[in-house]
Design brief:
The complex is a heterodimer. In chain A, helix 1 (2-10) packs antiparallel against helix 2 (24-50) and helix 6 runs antiparallel to helix 7. Chain A has 3 domains: 2-50; 57-218, 3-Layer(aba) Sandwich (Rossmann fold); 224-333, 3-Layer(aba) Sandwich (Rossmann fold). Chain A is 45% helix and 10% strand. The longest helix of chain A has 27 residues, at 24-50. Chain A is built from 11 helices and 8 strands. Chain A is α/β, with parallel strands linked by helices. Chain B has helices at residues 2-21, 26-76, 78-85, 207-213; strands at 95-106, 130-133, 136-143, 148-156, 162-171, 178-186, 218-227, 233-241, 259-270, 274-295, 305-324, 334-352, 356-376, 379-389, 394-395, 412-423, 426-436, 443-455. Classes of the chains: A alpha/beta, B alpha+beta. At the A-B interface, helix 2, helix 4 and helix 5 of A face helix 3, strand 7, strand 8, strand 9 and strand 10 of B.
Chain lengths: 334, 462
């Protein structure tokens, strides 16, 4: 497609120029202007279509962990765009023009779902003019549909803060959740790109085998974390706690999504006298001050976890994400 | 398994040994050996059959266990199975949200007096003195079917009465970057125009929006947008409407369209911390018998006069917005800078005091520049500067002695605000302004405002 366009653009303009010998000079000037205008137009057209030239499956991943998983399962067959960074609060992202432009060309959208992206994704989808990735179509993949949700509220009331009707959406902190998601995602890749079925099956088999082995390793490493009491800054770790057996004794946010006030922090500190915790956890994207404040006064370590791929320099892919998470938790225990 | 095996072996041994003990002939022995061999084969067959049956029984019990575990897991997940299972009418409920807002305003000058030089324009400041309730906005939105989505916003006026602010259907599966909207919607021109009042960064709209668009132009018609398949955001769109919103004069009893809009937007990210959008808009309408009251004139008529204008109105606008957030994390801190410029040319016939008609042409313009900074989570502060240019009108000879052609004054205003948002759904605001939009009538204004939204968690535009 690109080469074809180039040929059209490189056609000699002289061949199409009207040539009247009587006003050759004027014609030459007009010709130059014509060439320049044409070059600009061609450059613009090339710019427009250049983004369109690709053989790979175009994937729009809402969060870095799903970009990493897609990379594991699709290898070079996917061209992946990650909509949010590890240092961004995934609840608070804007429907930026760049996101809309990327969604326009995506063939597959891989997101957490469970209302995590409710503040921005609906606008991106609506404005994208792309029917293939709308909710309900095969190009729209929501990971939360394939795992057991925790903290499903019995009472839906905003007086409880920013609660999610379908449960806590931070599913990526339990390594075990990646197995069912990977299985479903692999099937979705095959459905969308059947020509590469064998590759996807192979990639999934490899990933699943390596991942199971890694889970066994992590669980062994993290054995000493069982029943360790912790404080969390945001209710973002129920899946991690559930997996490794951490005991969450307090949260620094008075309600999910609300900023901790000084008075509330003092109250948490007071409660810590009765129920001491071993460390205070926060995600890389969160402001460190509330946890540092508590950590200093309660004389416990403040542990920052990568939370997703890219959250720390060590967490470069899914495997190192959990390596680093467990290392940091173990370091907090010392 | 082993229990059966040994039992049969023991039996075989018991059966075999007494026969062995008999001192029999070779033939007999041979016959006995064959019999034993047969017996052995027989037993082995039966043993392996029994083993198979046992394995099957074990597998069955394992299967039953896993089914039980699955059932248990399903029982522990009320939402997932529930979401799939329930199919009553209520599960198709649309997203409903309600915006509640109120203000306290303290200022001196009469809001009925228009900005100097803009008496022929719209003049609705959107605020009042003292304590007041603002419009409550009730929004309902849902997918209609796989092809269309519908959304409506009803504004409930504090004095009573409901007006339809938005009511449109939007295509969701046209594909190829096309997006079609039909119904009543806020025009896609400019940057602020499409944003609902609860998303504004100040209590009121910029002066240029107040005088040129009556704060926000809504249209009844069609909008078609196309998004280019590029890495950069490139969007072009057009609208055809009846000319309902100012400067349109709500074309009645006529076929065709009364107003047209063209716009183009481009935008992108620069790294993960910066994002921007820029736009160009064109608007055109034909105004018919647009009557303005209280218009000052050269004769200094007390209370002004009523003038009527009919003619063409063409507006061009430029807009840009740039946002910066450290690490791209909007929750902690961010800076938003935005500015818009509009210029309108009108030419046609002006009827002075509803009596004397002659030609009239003027080019008016205005701009604003504002910055909003979130300096810590939940707290923001913003500054805005507004300026208008009423232009110099070309007034026909018949009205040269009546109509003011040159006001020689540029209305301006400086506004500062600070707001606090305890959550995503609530906001409290303090706003101070020095309003120099009326010549000789400067004003110091103070506003307090609350804006809260309840119900569905709406997604916001950029």
């Amino acid at each position: 497609m690109k080469t074809k366009q180039s040929v059209v653009c490189e056609l000699s303009p002289l061949g199409e120029m009207p040539a009247y010998p009587s006003s050759a000079q004027a014609n030459a000037r007009a010709g130059e202007r014509y060439v320049v205008a044409r070059k600009i137009l061609c450059a613009f057209l090339l710019l427009l279509i250049s983004g369109n030239v690709h053989a790979a499956l175009n994937v729009f991943a809402c969060e870095p962990e799903w970009a990493a998983l897609t990379q594991q399962l699709a290898g070079n067959q996917a061209s992946i765009y990650t909509a949010t960074g590890a240092l961004q609060d995934p609840h608070r992202v804007e429907a930026r023009p760049s996101l809309i432009a990327k969604a326009r060309r995506a063939q597959l959208l891989v997101c957490t779902g469970a209302e995590l992206e409710i503040g921005w994704l609906p606008v991106v989808l609506r404005e994208s003019g792309n029917g293939a990735i709308q909710s309900g179509s095969s190009g729209n993949f929501e990971a939360a549909q394939y795992v057991t949700m925790l903290e499903v509220p019995a009472r839906l009331d905003r007086a409880e803060g920013d609660v999610h009707a379908s449960g806590n959406p931070h599913i990526q902190t339990d390594a075990r959740n990646f197995l069912p998601v990977a299985e479903a995602l692999s099937k979705r890749l095959i459905q969308l790109d059947p020509a590469n079925t064998q590759l996807y099956q192979q990639q999934y088999a490899t990933f699943s085998q390596q991942w199971r082995a890694a889970i066994a390793k992590w669980e062994k490493q993290a054995a000493s974390l069982k029943d360790v009491p912790v404080i969390v800054q945001h209710k973002g770790f129920p899946y991690l706690s559930n997996w490794l057996g951490l005991k969450q004794v307090a949260e620094l946010e008075p309600k999910p999504g609300l900023e901790p006030s000084a008075a509330y922090l003092a109250k948490v500190l007071n409660e810590l006298q009765q129920h001491p915790a071993r460390m205070v956890l926060r995600a890389a994207y969160q402001d460190g001050r509330p946890s540092e404040w508590i950590a200093q006064r309660a004389h416990i370590p403040a542990v920052m976890l990568p939370y997703t791929v890219g959250g720390t320099p060590q967490a470069t892919d899914l495997f190192t994400l959990f390596d680093d998470t467990i290392q940091r938790l173990l370091a907090g225990l010392k | 398994m082993s229990r059966y095996f040994y039992w049969y072996v023991a039996l075989a041994v018991l059966l075999g040994n007494p026969l062995n003990a008999l001192a029999a002939t070779d033939d007999d022995l041979q016959a006995i050996r064959e019999q034993i061999q047969q017996l052995k084969q027989n037993y082995e067959q039966r043993i392996s059959q029994l083993e198979q049956r046992l394995q099957q029984a074990e597998a069955n019990s394992r299967q039953a266990e896993s089914i039980a575990a699955q059932a248990q897991a399903a029982a522990q997940q009320p939402t997932r199975s529930g979401a799939v299972a329930t199919s009553s009418e209520s599960s198709f409920n649309p997203a409903v949200s309600l915006i509640l807002s109120g203000t306290y305003g303290q200022f001196k000058q009469d809001t009925a007096v228009a900005a100097t030089g803009f008496a022929l324009n719209a003049n609705n400041p959107g605020y009042t003195q003292g304590l007041s309730l603002k419009e409550s906005e009730l929004s309902i939105a849902a997918n209609i079917d796989p092809q269309f989505r519908g959304a409506a916003t009803f504004a409930l006026a504090p004095a009573g009465g409901i007006s339809v602010e938005n009511a449109f259907v939007q295509s969701s599966a046209l594909g190829n970057g096309f997006n079609l909207k039909m119904g009543r919607f806020f025009s896609g021109l400019g940057y602020l125009n499409e944003q609902h009042a609860h998303a504004w960064d100040f209590v009121d709209q910029p002066l240029v929006y107040r005088v040129l668009w009556d704060n926000q132009i809504g249209e009844d018609g069609l909008q078609l947008k196309w998004l280019a398949p590029t890495d950069m955001f490139v969007e072009v769109g057009g609208e055809l409407g009846r000319g309902r919103g100012f400067p349109g004069t709500d074309r009645q009893n006529k076929n065709g369209a009364g107003a047209g809009v063209l716009f183009a937007h481009i935008g992108d990210d620069i790294g993960i911390e910066h994002s921007w959008r820029a736009g160009l808009s064109l608007h055109e309408t034909r105004r018919v018998n647009a009557v303005s009251t209280g218009v000052p004139d050269l004769l200094n008529t007390a209370g002004g006069v009523s003038n009527s204008f009919s003619g063409d109105s063409r507006t061009a606008g430029l807009d840009f917005v740039w946002k910066y957030a450290p690490n791209g994390n909007l929750r902690e801190r961010y800076l938003k800078l935005q500015g818009e410029y509009f210029r309108r040319e009108e030419s046609g016939l002006l009827t002075y005091n509803l009596a004397t008609t002659d030609s009239y042409a003027v080019a008016q313009s205005g701009w604003y520049l504002q910055g909003v900074y979130q300096f810590m989570p939940a707290w923001r502060s913003g500054l805005r500067y507004d300026r208008l240019d009423p232009g110099i009108a070309a007034v026909g000879a018949l009205n040269a002695g009546n109509v003011i052609s040159n006001y020689a004054f540029n209305p301006s205003r400086l506004t500062w605000m600070v707001d606090y948002s305890p959550s995503e759904f609530s906001r409290l605001r303090l706003q101070l302004a020095r309003d120099d939009s009326r010549q000789g009538l400067p004003d110091n204004q103070l506003f307090l405002q609350y804006i809260m939204s309840l119900g569905a968690h709406g997604a916001h535009q950029y």
